[in-house]
Specification:
The protein has about 300 residues and is of the alpha/beta class. The chain has two domains: about 140 residues, Rossmann fold (3-Layer(aba) Sandwich), CATH 3.40.50.1370; about 150 residues, Aspartate/ornithine carbamoyltransferase (Rossmann fold, 3-Layer(aba) Sandwich). Helix content is about 40%, strand content about 15%. The protein contains eleven helices and nine strands. Strand 5, helix 6 and strand 6 form a beta-alpha-beta unit. Helix 1 packs across helix 11, helix 2 packs across helix 11 and helix 5 packs across helix 6. Bound molecules: phosphoric acid mono(formamide)ester. Phosphoric acid mono(formamide)ester (CP) binds next to helix 2. The site of phosphoric acid mono(formamide)ester (CP) has 10 residues, from helix 2.
Length: about 300
């Protein structure tokens, strides 16, 4: 396979396994590039990309911008809080105004699930979903799988547990789709109130006991409790949550094997993981961030190749 089967990256659920392998093989080449003294290639000198962030971001926003600049694309950045969205302009009007400045690709983070799909049907640019509400975060799932492949050699056959607030997490859903597509075994673990009722229909198992989940897995992907998406209380207190679902060094050391710890960030230290776990040699959290640039370069490069045709 030499090109993606899609013209937009809206979610992992629209990808084939071959798309993921093509993205990873392309990311391998870009990872080599970004470790050279000159970290830039001229591949996208004729492409202009707009980064539209309607929700806060640190890692994803900076990672996309760096990926685009490493590919020599022209880049414009838009932040909703400083824009005419505040004056009542619609999403389509905003994007069409930006596109009339000859923009080829839009990377968008938006609080509404399906915002990227909606945009792809209404404007003439390639759309990359950088996180849409509690729906999907496809580049996060790609960089997570890429990091597992780098650390353990392969994703197929590995036991991966996703721990925490599954209900409000776009990272969980995209990871489940990506991991299942590549042949990993997936469990989710958390308080029952934070596990969606439909979750087993996605082919994952539920384990509410954290110790049992950790004893089973090769990789634990620890998620943050998304307080900003909660309008009611889902567990008695943060302290009780940390006691039942937080990973400590003592818990890791009591297992009879060394598991890999991942986290998409931002971390709430002392809640889902303690600092000594986040900073331990079992943690690949900063490798995930590093790999995010190479994976996003691959996604943008492959989608731009389709625009140029
Ligand atoms: N992982 C992630 O999406 O982080 P940001 O919200 O900082 O982009």
């Amino acid at each position: 396979m030499s090109e993606l089967s899609v013209n937009h990256l809206l979610g992992i659920k629209y990808l084939k396994e071959e798309d993921i392998q093509l993205i990873f093989e392309t990311a391998d080449q870009f990872k080599e590039v970004i470790n050279r003294p000159i970290k830039k290639v001229p591949s996208l000198r004729d492409i202009t990309i707009a980064n539209l962030f309607f929700e806060n971001s640190t890692r994803t926003k900076l990672s996309f911008e760096l990926a685009e600049k490493r590919l020599s694309a022209d880049v414009i950045n838009f932040s909703a809080s400083q824009s005419s969205v505040k004056k009542g302009e619609t999403l389509i009007d905003t994007v069409n105004n930006i596109l009339s400045m000859k923009v080829d690709m839009v990377v968008m983070r938006h609080p509404n699930p399906g915002a990227g799909v909606f945009l792809s049907k209404n404007v003439s640019a390639s759309i990359v979903n950088a996180g849409d509400g509690a729906h999907e975060h496809p580049t996060q799932a790609l960089l997570d799988s890429y990091s597992i492949r780098e650390k353990l050699g392969d994703v197929a056959g590995k036991n991966v547990v996703i721990v925490g607030d599954i209900l409000h997490s776009r990272v969980a859903l995209s990871n489940i789709f990506a991991l299942k597509l590549q042949g990993a075994n997936v469990k989710v673990c958390g308080p029952k109130t934070l596990l969606p009722k439909y979750i087993e229909s996605l082919g994952v198992e539920v384990e509410t006991n954290l110790r049992k989940a950790l004893e089973w897995c090769d990789v634990a992907n620890m998620l943050r409790v998304q307080n900003e998406r909660m309008d009611i209380s889902y567990f008695p207190s943060t302290r009780e949550y940390a006691q039942q679902y937080g990973v400590t060094k003592a818990l890791l050391d009591s297992l009879d094997k060394e598991i890999v710890i991942m986290h998409p960030g931002p971390i709430n230290r002392g809640v889902e993981i303690t600092s000594d776990v986040a900073d331990s040699k079992q943690s690949i959290i900063l490798n995930q961030v590093e790999n995010g640039v190479a994976v996003r370069m691959a996604v943008i490069y492959l989608l731009a190749s389709k625009i140029k045709q």
